[in-house]
Structure formats: structure tokens, C-alpha cells
């Protein structure tokens, strides 16, 4: 899952260009969102549905812009000594309501002792939010989503696994490509953003998947004493 240097550079140049445009789009979006709200109280019954569609489409553009900017123009990470256990615990708290909504439970197994890594807690949280969100979206109701931690020679491993639809072998390589999505409302940006964040932390990502059985994402981060 390591990107070749030249691919990375191309993405950087294209990204900088597109990030400029994304910023320009964001400003008119803000005023659109503001002014549409003013119309809401005066809508006739048949117009309310149009209003909902406009609103949800605006939200969608905003999500794409936010995720895209995270990829193309990431904020500088602020590294410090952090306990990965707390990052995972907080992420699970954030994702619990979404899991419940899909009639899924997130099982969590932690490690004894400290799990220190040198990293940016917020950026790492973003990674695990993206992985758990994908797991939720891939798994039918009553399925399993598990988040586990283990110690490896190369560091601390966090595994996010699900009993969902799985990823076809031929599609595994596509996961790192921006905009690859199989979802009607997907952006295809969650994994590319996550891979960049893990690379920045000198970590590794390993994916194992079996069609109609499930998927495991193993993230390994260098441990800090
Ligand atoms: P998005 O979720 O917006 O589609 P991502 O970059 O997060 O974008 O994921 C890209 C694609 O990878 C998804 O559309 C899906 O096809 C596949 N994928 C990611 N995680 C999983 C998973 N846990 N199970 C099955 N497919 C997955
Ligand atoms: Mg996603």
C-alpha cells in the first residue's frame, strides 16, 4: 500500500491546483447555505420537498469539499506523545450512534498497559472514524464490527474488521485512488485521506478481504517507549 514517489508528487501538484478551486467554491457555498435557510419559513407545501433536496445536495457538496481539502491540502499535523488507547476509545464513542442506527454493535478489545505513539491524535481519530464508517456501511444489520489492538515487533496494531460485503480482489488496488467509490453517496476520499495520514505517521496499512465474508484493515504504528 505504499505509493510510488512519482504518483505522490503528481497527486500533490494536481491537489494544490484543485485545492485552490475547492476553496473558491466553499465561499459561495456558505452564502447559498445561509440564504436558502431564510426561504424555509415561507415555503408552500409542495416546495418543501425541493427545499430538502437542495439542502441535502448542498450538504453533499460540502462533505466532498471538506474531504477533498483534507486530502489535497492537509493541515500540518501536530505530533506529540499520545496514548493510542484513548484515541481508539474516543473514536468508538463518536461512532457508536451511527452503528446503533444501522443495528450494529462495535466490539472493542483493548490492550493492557500504555500504548504510546508519536502522532497527531485528531488526524489519527479521522483515520479510525473513516475505517469504522466504512465497516458500518459495508455490514448488514446485526453483523459484527470489531476494533482490536495488539502489540507487534513493528509497533502497535489496530485492527478494524467487519462481517460485511467484502472487497473483490481486483478492486483492492483501487482503494488508494481518490474518488474510487462503490456507494451512491460515497466520495471515495476516506481511504486516500487515511492512507496519507498513516504514511505521515510512518505506519503501515494492510487489507484482507473476502467477498461476502468481511474485511480487515490492520493499521500498524511505531510504538513509543
Ligand atoms: P467512500 O466510503 O466514500 O466510498 P472510501 O475511500 O472510504 O470512500 O472507500 C472507498 C471504497 O472502498 C468504498 O466505496 C467501498 O467500495 C470500499 N470499502 C472500503 N472499506 C470497505 C469495507 N470495510 N468493506 C467493504 N468495502 C469497503
Ligand atoms: Mg468511506
UniProtKB/TrEMBL annotation:
GO MF: ATP binding
Top-level lineage group: Bacteria
Residue ranges the record marks as coiled coil: none
Domain Histidine kinase: 20-225
Keyword Ribosomal protein: no
Keyword terms of this UniProt record: ATP-binding, Kinase, Nucleotide-binding, Phosphoprotein, Transferase, Two-component regulatory system
Protein name per the record: histidine kinase
First and last residues shown, out of full length: 236 to 460 of 460
Amino acid at each position: 500500500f505504499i505509493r510510488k514517489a512519482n504518483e505522490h508528487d503528481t497527486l500533490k501538484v494536481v491537489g494544490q491546483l484543485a485545492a485552490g478551486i475547492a476553496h473558491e467554491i466553499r465561499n459561495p457555498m456558505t452564502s447559498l447555505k445561509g440564504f436558502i435557510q431564510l426561504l424555509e419559513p415561507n415555503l408552500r407545501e409542495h416546495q418543501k420537498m425541493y427545499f430538502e433536496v437542495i439542502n441535502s445536495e448542498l450538504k453533499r457538496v460540502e462533505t466532498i469539499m471538506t474531504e477533498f481539502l483534507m486530502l489535497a491540502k492537509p493541515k500540518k499535523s501536530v505530533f506529540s506523545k499520545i496514548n493510542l488507547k484513548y484515541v481508539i476509545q474516543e473514536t468508538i464513542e463518536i461512532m457508536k450512534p451511527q452503528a446503533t442506527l444501522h443495528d450494529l454493535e462495535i466490539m472493542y478489545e483493548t490492550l493492557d498497559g500504555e500504548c504510546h505513539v508519536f502522532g497527531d491524535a485528531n488526524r489519527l481519530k479521522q483515520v479510525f472514524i473513516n475505517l469504522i464508517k466504512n465497516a458500518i456501511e459495508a455490514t448488514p444489520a446485526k453483523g459484527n464490527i470489531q476494533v482490536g489492538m495488539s502489540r507487534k515487533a513493528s509497533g502497535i496494531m489496530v485492527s478494524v474488521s467487519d462481517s460485511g460485503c467484502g472487497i473483490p480482489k481486483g478492486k483492492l488496488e483501487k482503494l488508494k485512488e481518490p474518488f474510487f467509490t462503490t456507494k451512491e453517496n460515497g466520495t471515495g476520499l476516506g481511504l486516500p485521506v487515511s492512507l496519507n495520514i498513516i504514511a505521515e505517521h510512518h505506519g503501515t496499512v494492510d487489507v484482507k478481504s473476502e467477498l461476502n465474508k468481511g474485511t480487515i484493515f490492520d493499521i500498524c504504528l511505531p510504538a513509543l517507549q
